[in-house]
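Quick one: MFS transporter from Pseudomonas kulmbachensis, C-alpha cells please.
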Amino acid sequence: MTFFSDRSHRLALLAFSAGIFCIQLDAFALNLALLSIAQDYAVPVGRLKWVVSGYLLSVGIFMLAAGRLSDGFGHGRLLRLGLALFGSASLLCAVAPSLLWLVAARVLQGIGAACIMPSGLALLSHLYPSEQRGRAIGLALGLGAIATVIGPFLGGALTQWFGWRLIFWINLPVVLVALACCWRIAEPRVCGARAAVNGPALLLVSLGLAALGLLLDELGSPARAMPRVGLALGMFVLCASLFVWGEKHATAPLIDTSLLRNPPYWMLTLAGAVVNTATVVHLFVVPLSLQGVWSLSPLQAGMAFLAPAALLACGGPIAGRIPSSEAVSAMAICLGFSAMLLAGAALAYGWLLYLLLVTLCGASLGIANALTLIATQAVVDEQVAGVASGLTKTIITLAAGFGVILAGRSNGPLLNVQGVFISLAGCCLVACFALLMGQRYWTGKQTVDKLTGR
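--- reply ---
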C-alpha cells in the first residue's frame, strides 16, 4: 500500500477548499453586481440572464463527462486544469469589454467549475482514509458555505466602492494559491484503462441545449423572429434524435440505462429540478429587485440579502438531520411552504415584508435542495449511486439555467418580479402534489409487491 503524507492531505484539502470558495463566492457576489453590469454595458436588465444561465448550462453539460475524465485523466491533474480554467476565465471576466465577452468568459468559468467539483471530491476520497474522509469533505464544503454567507455583502460592497470587476479579480490570488498546492500533492496512480468519454454525444448535448436555450429566449417574440425560432427548434430536435440514437449504440453512454427504468428516481430528480430552478431564480431576481424595485444601493442590497443567503447555506445541515425515510415528505412540505412564500413575496408592497418572505423562502428552498440528493440516493442501487448523483446534479443545474433564461425575458429596465414569483410558486405547488401522490403510489405498490411475493 502506498503511503501518503499528511502534507499531501492538507494541500489537497486547501486546494479543493479554495476552488469551492471561489465558485460559491462568485455565485452569490455576482448577483449583487448585475444591475451595475447592465448600466456599464448600457443593456436591458433582461440581457443579463446569459451571464448567469451561460455559466449554469456549461457547468451542467460538462459535469456529465467530468467524473469519467477525473477517473481516467487523474483527479489531481483535472483539478489543476479546472482551477487554471476558472482562474483564466475570471481574468477574462474582469477585463471584459462587452457583455458578449463577459458571457463567453462565464461559459469558460463554468467548464472550470465542472472540472473542480468531481475531481476535488474524488481526490480527497483517495487521499484520506475512510474514517477521516467525511470530515475532510465537510470542511471543504463548509468553507463554501462561508462564501455563500459573505458573498452578498462582499459583492454589494465591492460593486459600490470599487466596481463589479473586482469580484473577478479577487479570484486570481486564491486560484494561484490553490494551484501552488496542487503541484505539491503526491497523488496515487490509478491503474487500469482510462475511462472513455463519448465525445460526439457530449457535443450533441452541448449544441442541443444551446439551441433549447435560444428557443426559450425567443418564446413570445414578434413574427420576425420566427426564422430564428424554427432554426433553434430544428437544431434541438436533430441533436436530441442523434443523441438518443447514439446512446443506444454507444459502448460508453453518457447516461446509465439502468436509471432510465427507475421511476421514483426520475420523480425525485424532476422535483429537485423545480427546487433548484426556484433557488437559482430566487438568487437572480431578489438582488435585482432590491436595487431596481426598492431602490437600495448595491451595499444595502448586499446587507439585506445576508439573511436569505445564510439561511440558504443552513439548509444542508438541517436536511442532513432528516431521516432518509422522511426525505420525500419533508421535500414536499418545503415545496408547498416555498410556493406560499413566493406568492406572498409577489404581492408584497413594503420592502421589509418582501425581504422577510424571501428570507424564509431561502431557508425552505435550501432544505429542499439538499433533500434532493438525499432522497434520490435512497432509491438507487449502490452500484450506480455515483452516476445517479452526477446525473441528478446535471439535470437540476441545467433546469436552473433554463429557468434564469425564462425569468430574464424582459426588454425593459426591470424584471417582471411578480410574474416570475407567481410562476415559480405554481411550479413548486405542482411539484409538491406530484411528490405526495408519487410517494403514496410507490408506497402502495411496494406493499402489494410484498404481499404477492413479487
